[in-house]
Amino acid sequence: MQTFDVDETIFKNMDVLNADKEYHPESLPEREEELAALHSALRPAMMNSTPINAFVYGHTGQGKTAAIELKTSMLEKAAAENNIDLSVFTVRCKGMNKSYHVMTHLIKELRGGLGAELPRGYHQKELFDMVQTELQEIGGTIIVVLDEIDAIG
After folding, report:
1. Does the N-terminal or the C-terminal CB of the chain have fewer CB atoms within 10 Å?
2. Who contacts 107 (Cβ-Cβ below 8 Å, separation ≥6)?
3. CATH code where residue 43 lies
4. Which three-class secondary structure state does DSSP give residue 142?
5. Three-class DSSP category at 146
6. What's residue 19's pLDDT?
7. Tens digits of per-residue pLDDT, 114-123?
8. What are the φ and ψ backbone dihedral angles of 74, each rounded to 5 degrees?
9. pLDDT at 28
10. Mean pLDDT for the chain?
């Protein structure tokens, strides 16, 4: 007879398989080398210097997004603990087919994310000016993650 005993499962946490819930791992086994490279690129931010641009690539499902989320969240925590003015903004580019869309979504993120309005009807030059204005207003070290940028047409 089947029971609902929690000891009868091979899973530690079923939520990691649920696409409706965000799961953020605390470690990524077998990705130490890639995480070290990403760490090196982000490390200068902790010294009030400019982080190194990083281009993370690979096949689907290899943990690129998870690795970036893990390292940037670690960086944000370390920056907060050391009173370093640092902000991380992520734009999920999947489903966007033009750089114009990426710019409008970046502006929305810089303005506060979910509650902010998506700018529409502007020329690309105006969007660049908006991004520059928002970045200056935020100040400090700003890291922008363009996730799945290769999806843009």
Report:
1. N
2. 116, 118, 119, 127, 130, 131, 134
3. 3.40.50.300
4. strand
5. strand
6. 67
7. 888 999 999 9
8. -65, -40
9. 76
10. 89
